[in-house]
Amino acid sequence: MNVRWITAALAVILLAVVCVELGRWQLHRLEERKARNEVTRSNLAAAPAPIDQIVGPQGLIGDQHAWRTAVVTGRYDASKQIILKYRNIADRPGFEIVTPLVQADGKAVLVDRGFLPRQSSELMPLHVPAVPTGEVTVTGRLQRSERGGSTNGGVPDDGTARLINGPDFAKVLGMDLYDGYMTISQQQPANDASFLSFPGPEIDDGPHFFYALQWFFFALMALGGLVYFTRQNKPEDKPEDKPAEPQPEAAERPEAHAAVRD
């Protein structure tokens, strides 16, 4: 086999190895999703409790608290309200209104009051429902702070942001905030009817298993193709390598005998 053929074979083998590793990665993600789903199911079934009993004094709402129902009583600070832009529900664009709810001890939690669908091509909501005055009790689902990688979408700018991030909001608003937020399930007094509620969590295995099967199939195809073309291009014996066939002895020439008789 020549160098080109060996190089191509090694490339195919490398491709198969990469496909196998990608399949294993998808299976790893599947296991992570299953574990996360178990936490979500457990949190959905848990009874409502005061937020400080769920999160603790550190004030960090983590993945282990996602979708847990918390109860917070306090007063909304409308002067620190933030409008979340470029949001959508079921592919419907709109805005979310996040308002800090300040407890008696001064610590506040960011409350996502609901979703306002965008009307036409508006860049800001035409009307934002006012917050209730006085003491408010909110029962809602906890969520960890949103993160956008290298973007700074969680830092409020001129009363707007793209992500809900407790530490980033705290720096700009100058408040003692929980690291995370909550969405309203129930509120006393009632939340404004203009707000649309949020859908629940997706509790399924997702596409990871089938993605893994696809990657493993690609690996088999690559190796199968290598075997096939190896057999198709098997070198044949060269003519010079074949044993020479014996040549028949030359027949006697009658002319030679005739010459001898003469």
TrEMBL record:
Topological type in the membrane: Multi-pass membrane protein
Matches recorded under CDD domains: SURF1
Domain of life, per lineage: Bacteria
Subcellular location as annotated: Cell membrane; Membrane
TM ranges: 209-229
Gene Ontology cellular component list: plasma membrane
Keyword Transmembrane attached: yes
Pfam families listed in its UniProt record: SURF1
Matching InterPro entries: Surf1/Shy1 (IPR002994), Surf1/Surf4 (IPR045214)
Keywords of this entry: Cell membrane, Membrane, Transmembrane, Transmembrane helix
Span list, region Disordered: 233-262
Ligase is among the record's keywords: no
Location (main, coarse): membrane
Family: Belongs to the SURF1 family.
The protein's name: SURF1-like protein
